[in-house]
Amino acid sequence: MKNKQCPNCKSREVVKRGFFKTEVHGTRQRYFCKSCGKKFIEQDAFYRMRNTPQKITLCLDLFYKGVSTRHIQEHLQSFYPHNSSNVSIYKWIVKYSKQIGKFTDSLKLNVGEEMQTDEMEYKTKGRMAWFIDTIDTKTRFMVASKYGNKRDMRSIRNVLNVAKRKTGNQIKIVTTDGFQVYTNLVRKAFFSMKAGMSTVEHHVTNASRGEGFNHKIERMHNTIRLRTKTFRGFHGSTESADSIMKGFEIYYNFIRKHQALNGRTPSELACPELKLEGNRWLRLIELSQ
User: Fold this and answer.
1) CA contacts within 13 A on the Cβ side of 33
2) Which member of 153, 174, 210, 245 lies 3.0 to 4.6 Å from 147 by CB, making a disulfide possible if both were Cys?
3) Taking Cα atoms as reference points, which of 194, 145, 148, 150 lies closest to residue 169?
4) What phi, psi does 44 have (nearest 5°)?
5) Do strands 14-22 and 39-41 pair parallel, antiparallel, or not at all (unpaired)?
6) pLDDT, mean over the chain
7) Are the C-beta atoms of residues 217 and 133 closer than 8 Å to each other?
8) Helix/strand/coil percent split, the chain, to 5
9) Confidence (pLDDT) at 215
10) Cα(63)–Cα(57) distance, integer angstroms
């Protein structure tokens, strides 16, 4: 079978060799490699997972809708014969949020002309942390985000660079607060060698001087705070916390329907060619495989 590759030796001298039956995933086609003699089944996004894709994606959806991992565990106990611990549920959230995030960060977006960038301060387990993000004001799509222990030039530059890569030359205005580092970072992120200058106008709003707020991104931050205020500090490392916040970015962009968008998700406007129907979490996991 020329379209199959052996995961052990990478050979394509592969033939079908019976079936392999599992309690969770049912009957799967088994293959045999003529080169190395290994038998294998096709590895998908849920390979060697002891729970069904439907159960795992249900946990992701409940978590980002505001249900704690312990309450999700209690919910599963009522409907599934084999329960999973809240620790396992947390690991699923981290694993698949990180996996989907790599796929969604590679997407090219259809956005408007203005992008708003801001930061949220977090205090978790006695230490400070920051969530830096940017949003397209037309589609409400959260273009890029990063959770970390610092609000420094490097962290903000990484978010702006990702936003630039995903939006191309569509952005004409970047709106920020009065944090001084934005002046140089915005100019460098959107600098055109061909034009010899920045391609965007940097618009600064300072609420302390009565200049108003970045209303759209502040409204999004209120949504994030409403969900994350119940966290008793993120478990584990900053990397795990970043994966959880990446999962919220995915939920906000691709799963949650917005009243301001007439019941559509931001992804339906920013990447309309991406058709997500039915179980959207499952479809995103499959696309990210």
Assistant:
1) 17
2) 245
3) 194
4) -105, -170
5) unpaired
6) 85
7) yes
8) 40, 20, 40
9) 75
10) 10
Which residue is associated with the tokens 């391609």? Answer: 199
127 neighbors 91 (Cβ within 8 angstroms): no
Q: Indicate the DSSP class of residue 254.
A: I
Enter the tokens of residue 234. 């993120």
- What is the helix (H) or strand (E) element at residue 97, kind and residue range? helix 86-104
CA angle, corner 145, sides to 207 and 92, nearest 5?
135
The pair of structure tokens assigned to 35 is 């080169």
pLDDT at 194: 80
14 alpha-carbon distance from chain centroid: 35
Q: Do 220 and 252 form a contact (C-beta atoms < 8 A)? A: yes
pLDDT tens digits for range 93-138 = 999 999 999 999 999 999 999 999 999 888 766 678 899 999 999 9
Other CB atoms within 10 Å distance of the CB of residue 112:
18
